Amino acid sequence: MVLLGGYDIEVKFGGVTALKDVTLEVLPGKIHAIVGPNGAGKTTLLNVFSGFIKPRKGKVLYQGRDITRIKPHVRAKIGIGRTFQKTSEVFKHMTVLEVVMTGALASIKDSVIDIFTSALWHGPYFRKEEEIREIAEEVIEFMELYEYRHRIVGSLPYGLQKKVDVARALAGKPKILLLDEPMSGLTREEREDMARYIIEINKVLGITVVLVEHDLSLVYDLADVVSVFSFGSKIAEGPPAEILKSEYVASAYMGKAAI
């Protein structure tokens, strides 16, 4: 059964077509990579999947349910987690623990206002606030961020800020995690470290991963399935060994030779 799918998706920004008749299905338990040059439509598709952009045409199904018009925060609560290319300016002024706790709110059914208002008065939702902190602490330990838990995110090196964003999304207990270039701007050592976390998130925690990434060598090592985008269209899809060695794909991907 398909976990998350976009069907005949079309997105336009003014006169520019960002996605044209794109169909992409993500199977449960897989690491599904999306690659392509800048402007190919990769991030736009993640925005459609996570609800930040409504498609002009087409639909999005999650576990067989049509979620095309469902808001982003509701998608987070039903199991669709998301990271972003850049760390939010809001999160940069919060501690690591606070940011990860914010992510954990997605795993709690009650509203944010109910939880925190009641927590002030030690009411029935006080236990929920404790539950949120517990979830956050577990994720912080998993992502090996414990020594930074009380540090302001904006004061941390860029590589650690990227890890915090993954931890925030992970704290929502997603069934599928959409990672938007989680390794961009990282050193080689940090990239290898992030790759290890992605494998553990998938293999140990059992979370399906959609990975937007430019490094084809890492994609070759990590992904079960690769979809190649160019000028808003999906031009190829299949196992990394087959797709990334294709001369046609390499030519479309900025004219590079196949790996």
UniProtKB/TrEMBL annotation:
<keyword id="KW-0813">Transport</keyword>
<protein>
    <recommendedName>
        <fullName>Probable branched-chain amino acid transport ATP-binding protein LivG</fullName>
    </recommendedName>
</protein>
<dbReference type="InterPro" id="IPR003439">
    <property type="entry name" value="ABC_transporter-like_ATP-bd"/>
</dbReference>
<dbReference type="InterPro" id="IPR027417">
    <property type="entry name" value="P-loop_NTPase"/>
</dbReference>
<dbReference type="GO" id="GO:0006865">
    <property type="term" value="P:amino acid transport"/>
</dbReference>
<dbReference type="Pfam" id="PF00005">
    <property type="entry name" value="ABC_tran"/>
</dbReference>
<feature type="domain" description="ABC transporter">
    <location>
        <begin position="4"/>
        <end position="256"/>
    </location>
</feature>
<dbReference type="Pfam" id="PF12399">
    <property type="entry name" value="BCA_ABC_TP_C"/>
</dbReference>
<dbReference type="InterPro" id="IPR003593">
    <property type="entry name" value="AAA+_ATPase"/>
</dbReference>
<keyword id="KW-0547">Nucleotide-binding</keyword>
<dbReference type="GO" id="GO:0005524">
    <property type="term" value="F:ATP binding"/>
</dbReference>
<comment type="function">
    <text>Probable component of a branched-chain amino-acid transport system.</text>
</comment>
<keyword id="KW-0067">ATP-binding</keyword>
<keyword id="KW-0029">Amino-acid transport</keyword>
<dbReference type="GO" id="GO:0005886">
    <property type="term" value="C:plasma membrane"/>
</dbReference>
<dbReference type="InterPro" id="IPR032823">
    <property type="entry name" value="BCA_ABC_TP_C"/>
</dbReference>
<dbReference type="GO" id="GO:0016887">
    <property type="term" value="F:ATP hydrolysis activity"/>
</dbReference>
<dbReference type="InterPro" id="IPR051120">
    <property type="entry name" value="ABC_AA/LPS_Transport"/>
</dbReference>
